[in-house]
Amino acid sequence: MRTFILACVAAVVIAAIGATVLSFIQEPVSVAFTTEGVRL
């Protein structure tokens, strides 16, 4: 039972770190899909 709880905690920690990293890497839509001739 202790191993299962430890695995659940590890999964939550890994997911939180992944979400944090992705939020810094991703660009907003207004930046990612604009070209020189587009006005938003």
State the distance separating the first and last CA atoms: 54 Å
Count of helical stretches: 2
What's the oligomerization state?
single chain
Q: How many domains comprise the coordinates?
A: 1
Q: What's the gist of this structure?
A:
The chain is mostly helical and 40 residues long. The protein has 2 helices and no strands.
Structure description:
- The chain has 40 residues and is mainly α.
- The protein has one domain (2-32).
- It is built from two helices and no strands.
- It is rod-shaped.
Layout of strands and helices, then pairs:
Elements: H1 2-25, H2 29-32
Structural descriptors:
single chain, 40 residues, mainly alpha, 2 helices, 70% helix
